[in-house]
Each structure stands twice: as structure tokens, then as C-alpha cells.
């Protein structure tokens, strides 16, 4: 890399700091940028330079957006009686792939992780509880003209690791401890099902995966 011009070398070194990018890939990407038309490179540079200033949190769900509300919260066709709680925006994007879910979200931006000094106050749990207070018992009108009695279900979709489990349990307890007039007993709190992925081989499944698969088995 020492034979590269300084500006190209700086770009390559920066790219090498990105997740999953090694030295050779960084060099290839730097040369790719060099071959881009000036207009495309200028647009890319402007997008990078304005990334931090234009991107902000949705005031409702803390998804990333350039406006006060993200496109999901602005969508009148979404079912606002169901909130799925996820750890990151990338988790939200996974749900949005394939149109498998039509509710709304709450992004925590992390999970409770005492070993890394991340507690409940460091993620967006307080804001979730405030949303629940606002929605509980408040009739809302769906796009189809139906009226529902506020919030019906909260899906805890934190990751199935130790920290994700702790986060889900903490949130569940906090919701259940909300005092009157918040009718939390009317809200169904659910957790994503665990089990074997499609195409998996039982021979290679670990104990906990099999245990969860047995516990969550469905009628066939």
C-alpha cells in the first residue's frame, strides 16, 4: 500500500476499518471509487458527509429517519394495536423483508448487558413504557375503519441470547407492574418462538435449541 497516492491510501485505510473488510477488499473498493464518474462520486461523498446531520430518530419508535416520523409510523395501513420490540434497526429491517409483519415497532438500540455496563436506563425501555401508557385504553381507528381498544399485543423480539432474555424479562416485568389506569392486563405479551431452522439436521442441534423446539411444538 506504500506505493499508493496518499489520498487513495487514506481511503483504503478507512475502508479497512469497516466490519468484514480486509486490506485487499479495501484496496479494490478504493480503486472502484477512483473509477466512478465524477457525478456519482460527488453524490456519494455528499451522502456520507450529511449522514450524521440528516439522520435522526423517529420520535415514536426510534427507527432511523430524516423526518420527525419514520415511514412505518407514518403509514396509516399499519396495525397500531401490535408493537414489536427489537434491539436494533437492523432487526427491524429483517422483519420488513418479505412483508411478514404489519404492526409497528419500538427500537431499543441495545440490550441489558451488565458486563459491558449497559443497564435499563441506557436503552429505550423508558420510552417504550411511555408509549404503552399512551396507547393503553385509548381507542384508535385503523385504516379499514375498525375501532380497536388501544394496544393489544407486545411482541418481545430481542435476540435469543442471555442478554436478550434478560432484556425481555425486564420489559415484561415493567409492563406488568404499570399501575392503574393503564389496563396492562388487557395486553398480550409474547416472545418470538425458538426452534429448528428450515433445513436443519437434528444431529447438529444443541440442547437448548431442541428443548425450545419441543416446548414450542405445534399441532400438525
TrEMBL record:
On the tree of life, the source organism's domain of life is Bacteria
- The record places domain Toprim at 81-197
Q: Where are the zinc fingers (C4-type)?
A: 58-73
Cite the SMART domains for this sequence: TOPRIM
What the entry lists under Pfam families is as follows:
RecR_C, RecR_HhH, RecR_ZnF, Toprim_4
Biological process GO terms, please? DNA recombination; DNA repair
Keywords annotated in UniProt: DNA damage, DNA recombination, DNA repair, Metal-binding, Zinc, Zinc-finger
Picking any one GO molecular function of the record gives:
DNA binding
Instruction: Read off the CDD domains from this record.
Output: TOPRIM_recR
Query: Family per UniProt?
Result: Belongs to the RecR family.
Q: Which NCBIfam families match?
A: recR
| Function text | May play a role in DNA repair. It seems to be involved in an RecBC-independent recombinational process of DNA repair. It may act with RecF and RecO.
This protein is called Recombination protein RecR
Which source organism? Answer: Candidatus Roizmanbacteria bacterium CG11_big_fil_rev_8_21_14_0_20_35_14
